[in-house]
Fold each of these.
Amino acid sequence: MTEKKITCNKCTHFYVTWDKQYPRGCRTMNFKSKDLPSTVVYESSGLECQKFKAKKK
């Protein structure tokens, strides 16, 4: 099985914060982190992000 890596930068819910300690955030899951939100979700649950929504081009 080929796993597809989630790229937060291509998601509509991803945003960059002004917080130096937690520079990346996810609007849908309502959290900020040092790492990409998809990485935090995977490490916490063992599942790829289920809320990914690609940005319109």
Amino acid sequence: MGIFSSRKKKRELKAAKIDDAFNRVYSQIEGIGSMEDPKKLEHYILDSCEQIIASTKAMERQKMEYRIVTRYLNDIKTIENLPKETAKDLKNTASNICELEKNILEARAIERNITDEQFQVISGDENDMPEIINRFAADEIYQGKLKRNLSTLEGDKSRWEIEREDLKSQGKLFRHMAIAVMTSFLTLIILLYVMYTASKVDISIWIFAVLFICAVCGFIIFLRQNKLARESRIALVHLNQAISMLNVERMKYVNVTNSIEYSKDKYKVKTAAELQYVWEQYQDKVRDQQRFLQNNDDLEFYNEKLGKILGSIGLADDKIWLNQVNALINKQDMMDCRHRLVQRRKKIRDRLEDHRKIVQEERDEIDRLMTRHEHYLPEIQEIIKSVDKLCGTSASNTVKIKA
């Protein structure tokens, strides 16, 4: 590395000297106005020298790339000619890396039906989730039972209210009947008394009959009124019981509904079955994350192992194969890689040949111009010599630079 760096420094110093010579000559040529002046040819020669230097630099870059590609091809040959044990170990390690990378990609592609918010909330209650789900499901069942009880109690309450209202109506009716009967009997007695006063007829039998009928009717009405009053009291008792039980059931329903709504709002679900599904998705996602971390750890281990194997082989560039793992286990991929490198090296050779032709054509043109004119600035001749030395060019055999 020291030799190459010293050579590079010498080239840079030479190039710097040539640049200074170019600047001095250009400053002397700038004042020339006639295109027929030989000095303009010197300007053209300088341009040709610059073109030679640029093409030479491009050739150096192409040569460096050519050497790199050649090293890659040599590395492929080295890998293909490895001892069986080393080749087997290399292939197994590369296979494990490919499998792990595939698993990681598949894990990343998996999408679970759980939001980030749900994941965060459930992660905080992870240990209690089975009990929470069971309680949620039990609350839903209890809520359904309470709904049915409320419906039944509402029906009972309405039935007792209707029956009580009906008993009240019957009571009113019998009171009106009692008033009507009393009024009728009084009217009959008055009529009988008028008949007795007018005709002096014995009406005692009729009076006794009217009184008897009045007593019987009054007694019947009295019994019916007592029965209606008793039934009304019973209906009121049942109504109060229904209302009391309804209030208790409503309180229970409100409490269990609040508990259900709290779970729904907290976990962003609608039912216990949906919460059970989200819990399963959470568990799957946790397992995915654990597998992902484990695969990453394994991948890091096998990448380090692959790096050690490649480093022990003595390749020119072992790092590049860390990104070409498939080629280490698949012959077709390795063949494709070699083919691409061969094609790339051929293109580099073609470009080198093109640059070489350009350099030679420019150098021949300089020789041709130098034979036509005898007087040049001393710096021109010095520049041409420096360019030949820097770029490895020379005058043609039939042309000599005149001093």
Amino acid sequence: MGIKKIIVTGAQPTGGFHLGNYLGAVKNWCLLQEDFECFFFIPNLHAITCLSYSPKELRRNTIQMLAQFMACGLDPQKSHMFIQSSIRGHTELAWILSCLTPVGQLFRMTQFKAKSEQKDFVGGGLLYYPILMAADILLYNAHLVPVGEDQKQHVELARDLAIKFNQTYAETFDVPEPYILKAGARVYSLQEPTKKMSKSDPNRKGTIFIFEPIDDIRKKIRSAVTDSGTGITFSKNKPGIANLMDILAALTGLTVEAIEAEYGTYSYSAFKNCVAEAVIEHVKPLQERYLKLLKNKEYLDSVLEESKKVVQTHASRTMSKVYRKVGLF
């Protein structure tokens, strides 16, 4: 058996996974564990770029995110799960990479421009965020980085910096490739079905969180925006119904054609009830596992401690090479 390729990805400890995260990414991460060496991390350093956060909540959310990883199917026997700030090397490598990064390239990053608009205060962390992300990737010499389309630009920066470091000093880093998860469903807001579902959506009724109360999930789906007309048919002119059909298809494995055949004569309200029950049936066992894990903090701590030993070894090996090549002690 050959050496497995390395995959690195993570999820910020803010708000937890929503249905779009789960169907579009996390379900696929579970499949990647079988064929790759996977580093799944919680980027808590990224979470402090906004000064309005609560340190107490950040610590709590970080542990809860680990429990969510595992409740959704990530296996500590198959993958490395760790907290970004607990591993030495992320910030050190980010500093070294920042010395190779043109400031103009950072100002052109799409997410920086979007997040810095109409803000009275924009911290340097928001500007340098993509460099820390590049360090997260290169520290483990990742071959592949599972990302959505909106994150491809950040992987491109990591690629640019890997190439520039190799050319400036010596061959050190593998050049990572974005790994677009084709099988994942694209889930839209229940209230604005032309916009992606988002944890930062100010309209909380548009986003289904995997670990929120079951009654809230049911209410949100029942109040989902639909379209004029009748009949359960898949059409770009009926984005509300199309979104609900996509969700049902992702959860059941049915094609949209099969859904049309089975539910075509249903009223919108009856169809929403069917989608709500399908979502609830799927998330209920995840919620049960999650609550069980949260009650066993000793076990969660042991998972982090065991993973840290392996992850820190990888990171220290990389930083030893980097320091030597750039002339540091």
Amino acid sequence: MQKIRILNRLKQLSFSDSRAAAYNYIQKLKWPVTRNLSVLTLTILSCIGIVYFFSPSGLAPSAQHALFILLVAAALWISEAIPPFAVSFLVIGLAVFFLESPGPFEISQDWEKYVNTWSSPVIWILLGGFILAFGAQITKFDRKFSRLIIRQFGNRPYHLLMGIMLTTGVLSMFISNTATAAMMLTIVMPFVKQYGKQEPIVKAMLLGIAAAATTGGIGTVIGSSPNAIALGILQSAGYEFTFIDWMISGIPTALFLILLSWFVLKKQFKTDLQQIDLILKEESAPQELADRNTTENRIIVVSTFIITIGMWMTSAIHNIPVAVISLIPIVVFTASGIIQSEEIKWIPWDTLILVAGGLTLGITINDSGLAAWMVEKIPVLGNPLATILMMTFMMSLTSNVMSNTAAASILIPLGAILVSPDYVLLMVVALGFSASTALLLPISTPPNALIYSTKYLNQPDFRFLGLLITIISPFLILFILWLLNPI
């Protein structure tokens, strides 16, 4: 034992002054900050260096600050060093302190316009949509509606596939695409487990749910967050584009993309099955929600849906603002006890914050003079339709690799300044639609990630349909918007 101690001591002495000893010591040390904090710090420092040390000529100080905010937001949304909603808070804070400050530690009285996006009418429209969806989920109206519709398509494989996709698409116009995909998965999973991943129609069903849940959101303003950002940009620019105006173009676009996806899946995944016995069984609700899963509450939910959507669509007739109409489901569902006070935290507030940050970024770009400078400096195509087509391709590709809400927050304000006022409406709406065409990768959208997590699909299964939709959708969107809207 004494000999071992001596050998160990000699080993320590022999390496105590060597690089190996130093290396072993450093290995025990931990980097004092996390990876995300490192990325955040490096991002801000890099953007400072790019903007303030390599500043383009002719750029006013306020425009420099706006460019800095734009670069920071884009880099953080792409890298996800901090949560996307936190980036929105950072955008709002930087806008307040950098753009309306006459001097250090001074804030102008006009700072409120950057914070007021949180109370924008668009936020209230989204909140009303979330509440409607929440009421439908609590009372199981969404599940009963989906089962009722799917039964009408019979049990032939491709007829049933169409029924599943159309039902998913319609629901995703009013309910979160993630929640819709999750609900539809519970309906088809017994069949999926019975036949396994070797059956082609299984893959077609899963991909169909993801495709319909994503593209179905194009149909209404409340269908996806990029739609709300697009509407907010239009409203801030003084354009009148109502809830029904969006649906006139959005629903045909969504339905066409869903039917196109169905046709592609039908040709890609051929099955020998002649019929499918899809068991549409009811699931028991959690105990805390069981008391509210009643016929009376479902009647309240359906009636509120009809009244709210109807008033949204006819706001130009009765002149009640759409944001005010959004209070109807909030009041009705809470007063009737369908939604209780402790459950309000389940609303996706992070999405609302992300949308508010996107609207603030749009105001920042315009009011700082950055938009005017970019119009002069950024080379654009001579044909405005070609410019819009280029931007819609960029939106579709970008949405495949990052949050489509974050992509919309960056590209929609930029797109609005690249064309003349006559084409702003077409550009903004086309970009809003294109943000809901990301189907290429399992990470492209939450529905994609959700169905990929079932382990019944491989990554290459997404490529053909995703690539086809990415290529075709910009042309289709531009054509439908040009055809249905006298812009």
